Amino acid sequence: MVTILDRTRLAEGIEPKRVRHPEKQARPDTEMKRKPEWIRVRAPTSKGYQETRAIVKENNLVTVCEEAGCPNIGECWDKKHATFMIMGEICTRACAFCNVSTGKPNALDMLEPENVAKAVKQMGLMHVVITSVDRDDLEDGGAEHFEKVIWAIRAASPQTTIEILTPDFLRKPGALERVVAAKPDVFNHNLETVASNYLTVRPGARYFHSMRLLQRVKELDPTMFTKSGIMVGLGEKRNEVLQLMDDLRSADVDFMTIGQYLQPTRKHHEVVSFVTPEEFKSYEKIAYTKGFLMVASSPLTRSSHHAGDDFARLQANRARKVLAAAE
């Protein structure tokens, strides 16, 4: 993260102002469109939200719920659901849609695996989602740290099922294999958008590398559930979304999520369109006809929203499919 020096602030003994997205400062401002009624949520104030926040702070943890400005934080934290973001709060990538800070990350916190496991146990989670920033600075992209977090949770809370939402491990040989060998229950890696948008929306990533990553998970462990998600409203065409669905099914991905992109600041990629609830429902129906076991498609859908309930349905849907195939 870049620090902008302000002589007045320094003279007054105030900590220098930190810029969350230094790579975006030179970009022209984009229009912030008014959100339609169906996308608005209330500010979180419940007792459950406050209790979850206290547990997160007590264990010095980072959540993607806060860092990415998730609109569902009030609902999820009230139910004691949280998505833990490991390996710090500073990302080495600079995606045009993302609100997570960009810059040079700090060293890994060796106590983090135990602290995450402690929080999972304190919160009594039956299902937990673990994600991370991109750590291109690490030789293994953070694969070993993912392993340690999974192992720590298994030891502290063996009844908890574990879903991981990983970076792409681009140019990190052997990293994916290590994470899959740690046996998470669900392996999630988000494509984020259609292939034609990658240069402008996700410039540090490669569409077909991400697709191949998901396919490789199934080759390594055919029993592992795989999952991927996209945002819409970034200028994609409908036929491109349908092609992406076909690509995911070719990679044997089980679960797809589709949600509305929301612009964090004027320096981020603009919202090209607000997709209607009816259009989301249409995407859901089409995705099911293509063979996904689970589809979550709505304006407020996010990768880890209702993850525990969705995992139970995912298991049930696979069981029904296996039974039907045997008859």
Automatic annotation (TrEMBL):
Record GO terms (molecular function): 4 iron, 4 sulfur cluster binding; lipoate synthase activity; metal ion binding
One Pfam family linked to the record: LIAS_N
Cofactor(s) named in the record: [4Fe-4S] cluster
Pathway recorded for this protein: Protein modification; protein lipoylation via endogenous pathway; protein N(6)-(lipoyl)lysine from octanoyl-[acyl-carrier-protein]: step 2/2
Compartment(s) of residence: Cytoplasm
Cofactor comment text: Binds 2 [4Fe-4S] clusters per subunit. One cluster is coordinated with 3 cysteines and an exchangeable S-adenosyl-L-methionine.
Record bears the keyword S-adenosyl-L-methionine: yes
Catalytic activity: [[Fe-S] cluster scaffold protein carrying a second [4Fe-4S](2+) cluster] + N(6)-octanoyl-L-lysyl-[protein] + 2 oxidized [2Fe-2S]-[ferredoxin] + 2 S-adenosyl-L-methionine + 4 H(+) = [[Fe-S] cluster scaffold protein] + N(6)-[(R)-dihydrolipoyl]-L-lysyl-[protein] + 4 Fe(3+) + 2 hydrogen sulfide + 2 5'-deoxyadenosine + 2 L-methionine + 2 reduced [2Fe-2S]-[ferredoxin]
Entry-linked InterPro entries: Aldolase_TIM, Elp3/MiaA/NifB-like_rSAM, LIAS_N, Lipoyl_synth, rSAM, rSAM_sf
EC primary class: transferase
Residue ranges constituting the Radical SAM core domain according to the UniProt record: 77-293
Alphabetized UniProt keyword annotations: 4Fe-4S, Cytoplasm, Iron, Iron-sulfur, Metal-binding, S-adenosyl-L-methionine, Transferase
PROSITE patterns, per the entry: RADICAL_SAM
Source superkingdom: Bacteria
Biological-process GO terms, alphabetical: protein lipoylation
Residues holding [4Fe-4S] cluster 2: 91, 95, 98
Signal peptide: none
EC numbers, comma separated: 2.8.1.8
Ranges for region Disordered: 13-32
Positions with a binding annotation for [4Fe-4S] cluster 1: 65, 70, 76, 304
A single GO cellular-component term on record: cytoplasm
Homology family: Belongs to the radical SAM superfamily. Lipoyl synthase family.
Protein name: Lipoyl synthase
Species in which this protein is naturally found: Hoeflea marina
Gene: lipA
